[in-house]
Structure formats: structure tokens, C-alpha cells
Amino acid sequence: MTVESRISPAFAPFLAGSGPNDKRDAIVIYRTPSNEEPRVRGRLRVLKQRLDSIKRKAALQQPIQAKLFEDYQKAGAKHFATRQPLATTGIGNNALPIAKVEVTSKTLTTLAEQPNVIAILPNQKIQLLQPKAVDYNALLRQEAKDKMTWGLKQLGIPELWAATKGKDINVAVLDTGVHGEHPVLNGKVKDFLLVDPLGRRITATPTFDSGQHGTHVCGTIAGGTTDQGVAIGVAPEAALLVAGVLIGDATVQTLMEGLSWAVEKGADIISMSLGFPHYEPLFAEVFAVLFDQYGILPVVAIGNENHGNTSSPGNAHNAFSIGALEKVSGGKTTVASFSSGASLAFPGSEPALVTKPDVVAPGVQVFSCIPPEKNGGSVFEYTYMDGTSMATPHAAGVAALLMAAKPEAPVSAIMQAMKETAKHPAGNERRPDNRWGYGAIRPLEALKALS
């Protein structure tokens, strides 16, 4: 990897207008020590073993980070405009090989030249992939009759429940928070954290949602049954680890803090319905650590910017990115018009072509829970929303069911089974394309493929 390739192309606009000595925050991903522990082919089934392994890796990474900081300060000293050195800050408890580092236009290359540096990203703002709240009275009546949402019915989820409901699987949700006291989420939120815009971890009791989005997502992943008897959650026995990372002016740093916390807490799956509007190839380095070192599956929304666009980090080549499926007349389904997708070509690079999304899942007219909201003298605790944000928790919930049913299957096999068994309307020869990806997920077929 060349020095230039370690620097995100997003730095050009990020540093535009900055003076040569103006400090800006960057996120640096550094090389990790060789893993001296035997590699685990499947998931570590005992949570304590996993957490102990994470702590050992963090301890090995700490001196590498310290040496990187020291060498950067020495090498960049000639560029400093003042006697005060550029700030360097670790993220989390070193579970991930990531840190926040101040850079200037002069020291950015100096940082990239350090031997243990893999990638440098600007600490830019991230945002919620904003859904739309809608009212579907006819659908509500049908779902009350079916005793489940149309998404659960479409995916054949009740048939999987005969084998598993996601018990012992930890799904981390990085979003706006969660109203954990909602009746359908009662007892399902295993841990909760807020990350403020400065990247500080804040514990809060009781749990809360700064909007509605996080609660809605959590309901689709692991929610129970409404007082009307409608099942809303794909994996109702999965445990939720919720980090509110979209509080105020959220940035890549707050996202990284949430990712690190999720790793430390023993997440099996991380669901992210957030992003920023461009292609960030270097985010793939973060996902590589999640996959290769920890066996964690990142499930990421691809965006709501229509065909021809994608959002990062869902468009990283190794992200498991999800587009939105909608139900149309005649009982058929199609990809929603707002659902993003694109093919990104990079001649001479590896991979040379990135096609997203990977799969699609129900993401329109999705019924789930929200924090209590007063309106016209009534209190509403549920609503419908549209978005790839709503498709992502469906896919995350399915992954939780598959992991629980096949605990020895490596995360790569779980993801591959979901892709290879997905149904594309034009047949397998068209897969993947930048509309459907590999197709609409079929959980039962994926479970058979893992058998």
C-alpha cells in the first residue's frame, strides 16, 4: 500500500479552505499485532471467552498505538506552527485499532508515512438515513389479521422460529438510542450507551431515544408482540446492545466509539442505519477488523438517495449492505424507488468493481415501535416508516436467527448464505446488480444452505 493510498480522497474537500497550520481531526486506523491465539473458525460460543480475548487483543494494541503517537509527534514537529503538539487520542479501550489524531495539511502525509498506519479518514459528520413516517390503515388491518408485520410474513420468519428465535445472540444497534421501556422491548436491551459529539461515553438510566428511529429499528430486530397480537421483531429472543451515536453533531469519531463499545460488549452483529454521502474506500479496513479478528457481522443501510447513489460505510466493498424492498399490487415485491444502489469502478485497484447493495429486505410500510408520542389527546407507541434504515434491521434479525441456529458457522458463511440464496427476479446470471444486489433474502433457504 502506497503512502498516498492510505489517505482518504475525502480529505481534499475536508481540508479545502484550511490554512497550512489549521488543525483538523482525523481518524487513523493502524496495524494490529499478529494474532497469537488460535484462530476460531466459528463464533466463540461462550461470551466470557470472547470478552477475555478482546481484552488481550486490546492490551497488545495499546503499545502499538503509543509508539505511533510518539513517532508522529517527532516526525511532524518540524511542521508545528506552535510549541503545542497536535493532539492524539485513543478511542474506547483499544478494542479496535483506531484513534483520533489532529492533522494539518502539512502533517497529513507525515502521519501516513508512519509504518503502522493503514488508513486515515477525515472526522466528518455522519447522519441518520432519514425515513418517512406514513399512515397505512389498510395494511394495519391486514397485519392485525396475520398477527405479524408484512415483512415477517414475506421472509417466512415464523417457520424459522421453530428452530430458533435468536437466543444468546447480541445485536448492537448504533442509532439514535432506544426507549427500552416500551412494552415490546421490555427486558431486551442488555446494555445502553450514549456517545456525545465529542466522542465521550455517557451512561444513562433509563434508556432513551433522541428521536424515534432507534426504537423503531430495535423493534424490528428483537421486538415482541403488540397488545393487538402483532409480532414485529425478527429475532425476539436476541439481546440488544444499543449505542446512541447520532446525538447532536455526530461524526466518524462518534461512530468509531460506538463500534469499539459494541466490540467490547461482545456483539455478534452490528446494525447501522446511518452514513455520509460519498464513497469511503478506507472504511473497509474497519470492517476487515470486525470480520477477521472478532467474527462480527456489520449490517449497513445502503442509503435513501435513489438509484445511482450510495452512502458510506454501506458502500465499503466488504460491508453487508442492505437495500429496501416494497410490496406492490398482486402480492409482488420490487425495490423501492428511493433505495440507493450503484456500481463503482476503480481500474487498477482491488477490488476493481464495487456493486451495492448486497441484498434487499422489506423496507417500506414497516410497522414497529416508537417512544410514546401524544397527538390529539391520544398516545401513539407504534408507526410505519419507509427506508433502507427499516430494511437493515430485518437483515440483522435474520442473521441473528441464523447464528443462533448454526452457532459454529463463521460469520463469512452466514453472510454468504444470505447472499447466495437470495432471489433475483431476473435470475442468478444477473447477480449482483446495483438495484437488487444478489436479490431478496430468503431466510429459510439460507438456513438450509448452512446445514
Topology:
Elements: H1 11-14, E1 24-30, H2 47-76, E2 88-90, E3 98-103, H3 108-112, E4 117-122, E5 127-128, E6 132-134, H4 137-146, H5 150-155, H6 157-160, E7 170-175, E8 189-195, E9 201-202, H7 213-222, E10 239-244, H8 252-264, E11 269-272, E12 274-275, H9 284-294, E13 297-301, E14 320-327, E15 333-335, E16 342-345, E17 353-356, E18 359-362, E19 366-375, E20 378-386, H10 388-405, H11 411-420, H12 443-450
Parallel strand pairs: 7-10, 7-11, 8-10, 11-13, 13-14, 14-18
Antiparallel strand pairs: 1-3, 1-4, 2-3, 5-12, 6-20, 8-9, 14-15, 16-17, 19-20
Helix pairs in contact: 7-10, 11-12
Overall pLDDT confidence: 89
Helix content: 25-40%
Task: Tell me, briefly, the overall form.
Answer: globular
- Any idea what the CATH architecture of the largest domain is? 3-Layer(aba) Sandwich
Q: What does the radius of gyration come to?
A: 22 Å
How far apart are the first and last residues' alpha carbons, in Å?
39 Å
Do you know the CATH topology of the largest domain?
Rossmann fold
- Per DSSP, the total helix count is 12
Strand content: 15-25%
What are the defining features of this structure?
451 residues, alpha/beta, Rossmann fold, nine-stranded mixed sheet, four-stranded antiparallel sheet, 22% strand
